[in-house]
Design brief:
Elements (H helix, E strand, L loop, with lengths): L1 H27 L4 E6 L2 E17 L2 E4 L5 E6 L6 E2 L4 E6 L4 H33 L5 H30 L12 E3 L4 E5 L7 E2 L12 E4 L4 E8 L11 E6 L7 E8 L4 E3 L2 E10 L1 H4 L7 E18 L4 E3 L2 E9 L5 E12 L3 E6 L8 E8 L1
Antiparallel strand pairs: 1-21, 2-11, 2-16, 3-10, 4-6, 4-9, 5-8, 6-7, 8-10, 11-15, 12-13, 12-16, 13-15, 14-15, 16-20, 17-18, 18-19, 19-20
């Protein structure tokens, strides 16, 4: 009985050892891979790019004063509509001492000249009436008196301009009244009542009183990388999406591409301007961040395969075509020429591939 159990124990041990060797052997064998079979299809392929930028008025005008001084009144605020010539602000002039002194001196000299001209004319008039003086002398002294009167009026007007910034002859056109030079919407008023302002001159750009723009004439201003700029043309249609407006889509047309690149953090980019129609502009505001979607290339109804089934070696492209599936899948490597790609599918330009060609896709399972 003991001998029987001993033999049985050896048999069981042998079975376990053989089973272990068989299991290890099976695991060491290469498992057959089963691939998904995919087929080419007819596709419309588009290569697109996205430009980042913002919405801007075509012309944004800075309204600057024609005289230096202090803002005494502001008549508009951001969002107001103004017409050409509307008064935007008023300026109180702070005269320079040198100019004020010169203007006062000119008035004093003009008063002295007028008093002298009056005396001379009065003496000539009395002599002329008694026929002791010629008519020519009378008319000459009379003209001199008129010139002296005119000179005094001009001197006083100049003094008023220096002191108040207002001409008596043209109070409505005074430099103290800052007027809009265009018709549009006030975008910004960067000054306040009491702020000092400087007129534009050779050495200074002057203080901006307000920014005015025509909000019915907006453009998209963005940048394109140098690798894609040659694919863009003036007159191409673009689709503008505004981040602040969910689902927005505004048609626009490229009207200008910069001829020279700018360095954008080490990358050469070119500025692109696209115009929006007046009908679309009414929904937008200046400064909106936006993206422009542009179709660079397009191919309709072309034979295409998934990018995932294509292998690239240098400048050559290959797919694996199914030749047999029994007892296991067999594939042959086949070269073809690619065309347009959108990153998901690629056009088959040429090669022995058609709609019924079975191609190797992703691995489904291992057997």
């Amino acid at each position: 009985m003991k001998k029987f159990f001993k033999i049985l124990l050896w048999v069981v041990a042998g079975i376990i050892v053989l089973g272990t060797f068989f299991f290890l052997y099976k695991n060491s064998q290469k498992q057959a891979e089963v691939y998904e079979i995919v087929y080419p299809s007819t596709q419309n392929i588009e290569r697109t790019t996205v430009l980042t930028g913002k919405i801007e008025p075509r012309d944004e005008i800075d309204i600057k004063p024609q005289i230096s001084g202090i803002i005494s009144e502001i008549k508009v605020e951001a969002g107001d509509h103004v017409n050409f010539g509307d008064v935007i602000a008023k300026i109180k002039v702070i005269p320079e001492e040198a100019q004020l002194s010169s203007a006062k001196s000119r008035v004093s000299v003009a008063e002295i000249s007028l008093a002298e001209a009056k005396q001379t004319f009065e003496r000539t008039r009395q002599l002329y009436e008694k026929r002791y003086e010629s008519r020519e002398k009378f008319e000459t002294d009379q003209a001199a008196l008129r010139r002296a009167q005119e000179e005094l009026e001009q001197a006083r007007d100049q003094l008023n301009i220096v002191r108040e910034g207002v001409s008596a002859a043209n109070a409505q056109g005074s430099n103290t009244l800052v007027r809009s030079t265009v018709t549009g919407i006030v975008l910004e008023v960067p000054v306040k009542v009491g702020s000092s302002v400087i007129q534009a001159n050779t050495f200074n750009d002057g203080t901006t009183i307000a920014k005015v723009a025509d909000m019915n004439d907006l453009i998209f201003r963005g940048k394109v990388d140098e690798t894609e700029v040659d694919l863009l043309k003036e007159g191409m249609s673009v689709d503008i999406s505004v981040g602040a407006i969910a689902g927005s889509s505004y048609p626009a047309v490229i009207e200008k591409i910069a001829p020279m690149a700018t360095d954008d953090n080490g990358t050469n980019t070119f500025e692109v301007k696209a115009s929006l129609s007046p009908e679309e502009s009414v929904h937008l505001r200046a400064g909106y961040s936006a993206n422009a979607n542009i179709v660079l290339e397009k191919a309709d109804n072309v034979l295409a395969v998934s990018e995932s089934v294509v292998e690239y070696e240098g400048d050559k492209s290959y797919v694996y075509v199914l030749t047999d599936s029994v007892p296991a899948q067999k594939f042959v490597k086949r070269e073809f020429k690619t065309g347009l790609s959108d990153g998901i599918v690629v056009e088959v330009k040429s090669g022995d591939i058609n709609l019924k060609t079975p191609l190797r896709g992703n691995i489904v399972e291992n057997k």
